[in-house]
Specification:
Elements (H helix, E strand, L loop, with lengths): L1 H16 L14 E5 L5 H15 L1 E8 L4 E6 L5 H9 L4 E6 L12 H4 L8
Antiparallel strand pairs: 1-3, 1-4, 2-3
Length: 123
């Protein structure tokens, strides 16, 4: 469990450092991935997530992974993305917040293994 949590935090940090995530405060579609602190059983996560959503002015907007405390949220009607980001970053129950961004390929891969079917029997 500790390893999953450490790996999740590491992946979020690396994505931000490499510029794979959208710039801070500029979520492409207004969604954020939120990593919560504390116990992450299904019941504990659901309770913490409901409280967080209500206090921050957020709504669920994508996948939830209770095992690592991950929640995908978006601003509720009447709340801006910036207000939501500030509220989430100011909440002591939140370990990390990363804007959800979209990535696009700079060039098409030229590896034939990716574009041509393998004709070998049994594969």
């Amino acid at each position: 469990m500790q390893m999953c949590r450490a790996l999740s935090i590491g992946l979020l940090a690396v994505a931000g450092a490499l510029g794979l995530a959208a710039p801070a405060g500029a979520a492409a579609d207004g969604r954020f991935e939120v990593l919560l602190r504390g116990g992450h059983g299904a019941t504990a996560h659901a309770s913490a997530a409901r409280g967080l959503l209500a206090r921050a002015g957020a709504r669920r907007a994508g996948p939830s992974v209770p095992e690592i405390g991950l929640e995908t949220v978006a601003p509720a009607p009447g709340t801006s993305a910036r207000e939501l980001l500030d509220a989430l970053r100011g909440d002591p129950r939140v370990r990390a917040v990363v804007p959800v961004g979209r990535l696009s390929l700079r060039a098409a891969p030229n590896d034939p293994a990716l574009s041509q079917p393998d004709g070998t029997p049994g594969t």
